[in-house]
Amino acid sequence: MAEPTKPAKLSEPHAAPTYRLDKSFEWNAQNGPNFSGDFPALPKSAAKDFFGYAVNSRFGLAASVGVSANWIGLYSELGFDILTYKTVRKYERLAHPWPNFFFLKDGKPLDPDVVQVVAEGQPADPGHAPSAGSVGMPSTDPQFWRDDIRKSRARLAPGQVLIVSIVATSQPGMSPEAFVAEFEELAAAVREAGADIVEANLSCPNVDKSEGEVYQTARLSARIAAAVRRGANGAPVLLKTGEYRDAATLANFLVAINGYAGGVVMINGLSRAVATPTGADAFGPARRRAGMVGSAIFDVALANVRNAAAIINDKQLDLKVVAVGGASSPERVRAFLNAGACAALAAWPATMNPYLASEVRNADPAI
């Protein structure tokens, strides 16, 4: 692994995004990441606990562009200490076709019935800009990801940890038992391949509800958590959720999974209709709704994290919260931790600003 060179000039404009917006997600997965800058100097600080692992910091990369050892290796060197290998399936599945991302005009209001409008041109600071993504939940072939997870794990530095995200593939006529069993099978496979922690993705804003809204059903979520725990063979288990608008639904979910999962990762992107300035569906008629990501969803994510932490404390549940959603600055990462999260992860902001981990860790070494 390359030795760190001089610190990046963080007072200057950020390095180019590691993700090529003019190319498809599949192109980026196979040809990326796009990075040619210096590797920043990172502060030395006391180790922190993350589900039993000693990590350099409580900040990292959420399930997003960590699609291969090349991507995981780059973000490891950039100082992201909690690294998530993007969701894998039992079967290969391609991402939605290009376009996959747009910047949004303002990203507000966040009412689910308000159409979000695409911005004209690229913002000066894309890492903080409201955005929308339509990728789906693609996966490489299991023959590839089994070997590649091993390679990814080998690219990590001391004080870093690898999460691997999994999802069962819903098919016509599939029984709940078979759906749950597939999660267990995948958990065992990724654990054998080198996952330190297994994340079951129960939420996605731009796929079928049978896969993307599992977290809204407490009983099924608990069955999946129990199955993943069996398959993970002693590794910590996390469940990825979307937005909860109702405190009672969130409480039911947390109580149901308690004892099976070690924590929850929240939140995924917000499902919203996205249109061009002329009113046409931005991603095409078949993909009218997409996932709002990045800075625009920070307030919603922070409220969900705060609510979950309060419920866990009030009911004395053996769970922790990992925050995701607009963690685009040191101040926002600290806000998540102050709200009760044990760690914070970035997805879109990390792809737009590869020096984000350096900024976070240098601004507050206690993170």
Protein architecture, described:
This protein is α/β, with parallel strands linked by helices and 367 residues long. The chain has one domain (40-363): Alpha-Beta Barrel (TIM Barrel). It is built from eleven helices and 15 strands. The protein has helices spanning 25-31, 69-77, 142-155, 176-193, 209-212, 218-232, 247-257, 298-315, 330-338, 348-352, 356-363, and strands spanning 48-50, 53-55, 59-61, 82-88, 101-103, 116-117, 131-133, 161-166, 197-201, 237-241, 263-266, 270-275, 289-293, 320-324, 343-346. The chain has an eight-stranded parallel beta barrel with strand order 3-4-8-9-10-11-14-15, surrounded by seven helices. A five-stranded mixed beta sheet has the order 5-7-13-12-6, with no helix packed on it. A two-stranded antiparallel sheet has the order 1-2. β1 and β2 form a beta hairpin. α4 runs parallel beside α6 (218-232). The longest helix has 18 residues, at 176-193. The chain is globular. Residues 1-13 have low confidence and may be disordered.
General form: globular
Biggest beta sheet summary:
8 strands, parallel, barrel
Listing every helix as H and every strand as E from the N terminus to the C terminus, the arrangement reads HEEEHEEEEHEHEHHEHEEEHEHEHH
At CATH level 3, the topology is TIM Barrel
Structural class: alpha/beta
DSSP helix fraction: 25-40%
Say how many strands there are. Answer: 15
The number of helices is 11
Number of domains: 1
Ends: how far apart? 24 Å
Overall pLDDT: 93
Q: Order of strands across the widest beta sheet?
A: 3-4-8-9-10-11-14-15
Strand portion: 15-25%
Q: What is the alpha-carbon Rg in Å? A: 19 Å
CATH class: Alpha Beta
